[in-house]
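Proteins fold reproducibly. Take a sample protein:
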Amino acid sequence: LDIYLNQKQQWGYRADYDHDDCFFIDIKRPPRKQNRSLKNVVVLLDPGHAPDSGAVGPTGLFERQANLELALTLADLLIKNGAFVQWTRSGAAGISLAERVQLADTSHADVLLSIHHNAIPEGVNPFKSRGSSVYYYHPQSLELARRIHQQLLKALELPDFGLYWDNLAMCRPTNMPALLLEPAFMMHPEEEMLIRSTKYRKNCARAIVKSLKQYFHEFRE
């Protein structure tokens, strides 16, 4: 099925069947342009993990804690720029991955950002596998993924671990551009110490918000 749209960027869609088994596609229109601000943009933040700990750093830092602390810093900056923030969790308690996906599907958010910190399998050299990476699944998410990836590299000055297509649950929702961010590695001793710092969280947040402002300015109607 080919659908041609009169818009700069495909923003999202929902495909389903109604009660009469008729197939339908609900295509999301781009948000209205508001100069370079994020006014009225709805961002769904997903601090990864919880109740599970996620990765555990060399000094015992749980990834679920690091993810939430970064997401809280990011949320503050988003709100200061006029955005509305929704959460899959905003505290220590969390919901299952399946529930997070379902929440994303019904959230009506304009963008989904799943916040994580990377890890490596046992036996892999942590001094060779390190740095910042961003993951996407649907083509509609690629342009935003590129922008955030580039800004994270500039802001953090960590090695480039890559921009990847991957079949990840929190990248699969179709209703909006959906990304999974891994700004640094939990398993690398120096990066874990960086993750613990307020400066790191603020630099990450500024990089992400700058990317969003550029993206929304260019592709809003």
